[in-house]
Task: inverse folding
């Protein structure tokens, strides 16, 4: 069991703190833009950049609690900073997640309750496989990819860096989605996507 601090003070941080505690880890506190997270039930340590000053006194493990609702986020920047300062940012599988043996995942990646990651899949760094999402066999996710709640990647799907696959979206088998795409909630992707942008609907079409 390890001692963690959680970087971020919103809903995603709260989910991670809950998961870490259920896994038996100690959570010393969280950082956030401001001290507004009484509901976090763990001490506020300072702003999101405070870990640079607090390094000596903080636990050696960190969790990336900053959520991702768009393509551009600071998640990878923070992961790089944390690692450069010597923190470990382990992969977290929530107690209710299912990850098949041999699935590979990069540092800072989390798989949340009810999510299933099937044999042969590879997840990059700082990814989120959110509640009840499915990443079926032999998928490959780049870095900083978010598979939102209830989204489904069928077998052999590839998703590029920084993509966000929205809540309940479905990608059929062997689809390739290039980096920097937002797939809207409920979209159905039936063709490869090779131009970065925002895609919605069934079948998914580019709107921006
Ligand atoms: C635990 C968590 O909470 S994780 C968070 C999970 N969140 C998500 O999955 C959110 C995914 N985001 C979406 O689906 C968003 O609606 C986006 C990114 C696709 C579009 O957002 P915006 O760029 O703000 O577009 P906007 O809301 O202005 O809509 C533009 C048009 O697309 C339509 N549209 C927006 N989203 C969708 C969608 N998912 N499916 C179909 N049509 C859509 C709108 O109705 C609008 O159409 P109109 O011009 O005919 O009125």
Result:
């Amino acid at each position: 069991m390890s001692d963690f601090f959680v970087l971020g003070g919103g809903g995603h941080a709260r989910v991670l703190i809950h998961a870490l505690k259920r896994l038996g880890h100690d959570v010393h506190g969280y950082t956030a833009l401001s001290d507004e997270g009484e509901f976090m039930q763990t001490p506020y340590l300072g702003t999101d950049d405070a870990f640079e000053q607090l390094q000596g006194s903080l636990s050696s493990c960190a969790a990336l609690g900053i959520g991702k609702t768009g393509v551009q986020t600071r998640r990878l920047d923070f992961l790089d900073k944390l690692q450069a300062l010597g923190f470990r940012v382990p992969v977290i599988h929530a107690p209710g997640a299912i990850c098949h043996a041999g699935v590979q995942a990069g540092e800072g990646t989390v798989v949340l309750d009810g999510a299933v990651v099937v044999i042969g899949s590879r997840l990059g760094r700082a990814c989120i496989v959110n509640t009840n999402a499915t990443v079926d066999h032999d998928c490959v996710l780049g870095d900083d990819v978010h598979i939102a709640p209830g989204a489904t990647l069928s077998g052999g799907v590839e998703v590029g860096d920084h993509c966000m696959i929205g809540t309940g979206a479905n990608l059929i088998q062997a689809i390739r989605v290039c980096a920097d795409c937002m797939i809207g909630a409920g979209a159905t992707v039936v063709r490869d996507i090779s131009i970065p942008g925002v895609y919605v609907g069934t079948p998914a079409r580019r709107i921006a």
Q: What stands out?
A: Residues 11-22 form the longest helix (12 residues).
